[in-house]
Structures are given as C-alpha cells and as structure tokens.
Write a structure and sequence with these properties.
By secondary structure, this protein is of the alpha/beta class. It is built from 16 helices and 12 strands. Helix 7 packs parallel to helix 8 and helix 15 packs across helix 16. The protein binds pyridoxine-5'-phosphate. The site of pyridoxine-5'-phosphate has 19 residues, from strand 12 and helix 15. Pyridoxine-5'-phosphate binds next to strand 12 and helix 15.
C-alpha cells in the first residue's frame, strides 16, 4: 500500500526532506508488519495543529504530533499522523538534535499510537511504548539513512605548498590534526603515482595519527594498490589519474573497466578496506559501481561548481541530487566532492542521501587568509546548517 506525505505549511526557513520522511515511514510500516496499509502524514505549522488540538482534544495551544486512527472497518487504512514542523524545530533545538532526527521520532511515536499503543494508559504501557520507540529508532538509524552530512578534508594542497620549497613545512600531517580538532570527520589524501604533493612519508604518518577516518584517493595501479593494502586506511576512493592534469579531471569510467576495478575492490574488501568510486553523476556509472561491489560512490561535483550561470548550475545540481538518491536506493553509500567552496557547498550538503563531502582547495585557500582552524569551522557550519544540525 502506500504512505502519503503532504507538506502543508509555509515556513521558508524550515527545509525538510519529504523523501527522507517517506523512506523512514515506509521502513517503520514494514518493521511493524503494516506495510500493506495506507498511512497519511501531514506536516503543518503551529496554527494548524493548535486548531486540531482544540477541536479534537479540547486542548489549547500547539503540540508536536497528533494521531488519528481510522475506523476499524477500513482495515487497510491506518489513519493520519499530523506533525507540527514548527514545534518539532523548537523541540529539536532544545534537545540539541537534528530536525530530521526529531521528526523521525515524532513519526515513530505517532505510528505507535495508530497501532494501538498509548502512553497515557498508565506507567507500564508508557514504559513499553518508550522501549519500543527507542528500539525502532536505533534500528532505523543503523539502516544507513543519515540526515547528518560529514565534512572530510583533503590536505593535498598543504603538501603542494611544502613541496614548492622542498623543505618540511607546512606539514600535511600537522594540518590534518588541526582539521580534526576543528571538527573534520575525516582526512583525505591523494597519493599520486608521481608523488607531486602527498609523499609516502605523509601517508605512513597520517595512518598513525589520524583520529577520525582516513580516505586514500588513488588510481587503480599496482604499486599504489599494494601501498593501500599495507596501510589499511578506513577507505580508498578510486579516481582516474592522468600525469599531466592539474587535479582529477572527470569521474572514473567504471562501466568501461568493470573487470579490472572489480579485482581491486575484491583485494581491498578482503583487507577490510571500504571502496568508493569517484564517478560522474550518471546512472550507467552508478549501476556499474553497484555491480562490481563498491560500498560507496563519490559523486563528482565539478561541473556543478564550475557552472557559469544559474540554469546550468541548477541542471547539474538536479543530476547530482537524482544520482545520490538513485545510488542510495540501490544500497550504495554516497559521498560527493570536487570544487566545492563556501558558496556551492550548502545545496549539496542538504541532499539527505549524501553522507560525506570531500573538500580541499577552498578550505586550504581560505586558511591562507583566516587560518586553518577558522576555515574548517566556517565550512563545517555551512555543512551542518544545510543538513539541519542545530
Ligand atoms: N574528491 C576527489 C575524488 C578529488 O580528486 C578531489 C581533489 O583532490 C576532491 C574531492 C577535492 O576537491 P577540491 O580540492 O576541489 O575541494
């Protein structure tokens, strides 16, 4: 059957993902064995929920969620859950959680009411309902649906500056530690065949010192594959690598070299290393990445960032958003990156199926002016606010 989610409020600052709510509602219905029923979820503002509260419960003022079960004769209809996004946003702020996380809790709470649970019927029932809610939410959080976008920082450019002088400073290892202290969720480095920025010494030290997650970008070549297998970073991102390019140019043509890349993925997987494919936002590449067993794809945001007018940028954005959902729904985990800066990041961070952004040049550039700590914090704020972390 189906879940219908209607947004009926006009609060321009409260961006919520209808898609994420639908996904969570469907999951909750399956989990509670009512996937063959219909459910209606209505998102409203305080004024509307206050009216419903007064009319049906004789209680003044807004509330967070109301459940309206349908009569038993309509056995395939579960009923309506009405949520005030305005109250939810206030409560999320008080609880220091995300709006999406709180909406998911309200949805779960509302659904349990429709299924006959009622915390107002006494302490025993209240505890049982609360336990079930916690259990469902914990399980739902582990399904991979993640409303919080992470920021991983690429420190290659610190090494580029160091190498320009041929001395030891600035050190990408120190820079990585500063990025982590300022809130980065991961560190990315690209060990190129020609070692033009990051050197072997850097990856060895970074492996020992990174406290978050190390993502090693690499071309699928024999020497670098062996280094990755020895280092065992948390993940590798396979990228195309050309000697003369200034930076990685396009996405990897996974569809055109499935056999070779499948072998690399299998080697990495056996060593416990997750593999991501850096691809253009195209169905063909997403499907190929899925077919050969990649865990992640990283969607190339370069064309979106380089767009020279709004219409071009919107089109590129739509392709990234649709590709992220397509990959996510196939079971892939989704990252994105390349060229993102302090203007272009927000929209990409708001795509709820994207887990992590990989950003380098813009942050290191800003660090020259304002310091690395501040540059990271400013970017982290953009990412956090876009993914509604309060
Ligand atoms: N992701 C990949 C696969 C890359 O190759 C790069 C560039 O090293 C980035 C992300 C980061 O791009 P930028 O430095 O433009 O933020």
């Amino acid at each position: 059957m189906s879940v219908d989610c209607t947004i009926n409020y006009d609060l321009p600052d409260l961006h919520i993902s209808r898609q994420l709510l639908l996904r969570n509602a469907n999951w909750l219905m399956r989990k509670n064995n009512v996937a063959d029923h219909n459910l209606s979820v209505l998102l409203v503002d305080d004024e509307e929920i206050a009216w419903l509260n007064k009319h049906y419960r004789k209680i003044s003022g807004p509330t967070n969620v109301l459940s309206f079960p349908l009569s038993e004769s309509l056995f395939s209809e579960l009923g309506d859950i009405v949520i005030s996004v305005e109250t939810a946003a206030r409560e999320a702020k008080e609880k220091k959680t995300t709006l999406h996380a709180h909406l998911t809790w309200l949805l779960t709470h509302g659904l349990l009411h429709l299924l006959g649970h009622d915390h107002e019927r006494g302490e025993k029932e209240a505890i049982a309902m609360w336990d079930l809610e916690q259990k469902l939410i914990t399980e739902l959080q582990n399904t991979g649906s993640n409303p919080m976008t992470h920021l991983a920082i690429n420190v290659d450019h610190v090494a580029t500056v160091r190498n320009a002088r041929g001395i030891t400073e600035p050190d990408p290892v120190t820079a990585a530690a500063i990025c982590e202290l300022a809130g980065a969720a991961g560190i990315v480095v690209h060990l190129r065949e020609d070692r033009r920025h990051i050197k072997d010494r850097d990856v060895i030290l970074l492996r020992k010192t990174i406290k978050t997650r190390m993502n090693l970008e690499m071309g699928a070549n024999k020497e670098i594959i062996q280094i990755a297998l020895d280092l065992k970073p948390e993940m590798v991102t396979l990228v195309p690598e050309k000697r003369k390019e200034l930076t990685t140019e396009g996405g990897l043509n996974v569809a055109g070299q499935k056999k070779k890349l499948a072998k690399t993925i299998s080697q990495m997987t056996k060593a416990g290393i997750a593999v991501s494919m850096f691809i253009d936002p195209e169905s063909k590449q997403i499907q190929a990445s899925h077919d050969i067993g990649a865990t992640y794809v990283e969607l190339h945001t370069g064309r979106y960032c380089d767009a020279t007018n709004d219409s071009e940028r919107n089109n590129e954005y739509k392709m990234i958003a649709a590709s992220a959902d397509e990959a996510y729904e196939m079971g892939l985990r989704v990252n994105a990156g390349h060229g993102l800066d302090y203007q272009t990041t927000s929209r990409i961070a708001a795509i709820d199926t994207i887990e992590e952004l990989s950003i380098g040049h813009a942050i290191i550039t800003r660090a020259v002016y304002v310091g690395l700590d501040q540059a990271v914090r400013e970017m982290k704020k953009i990412v956090s606010e876009a993914s509604m972390i309060v």
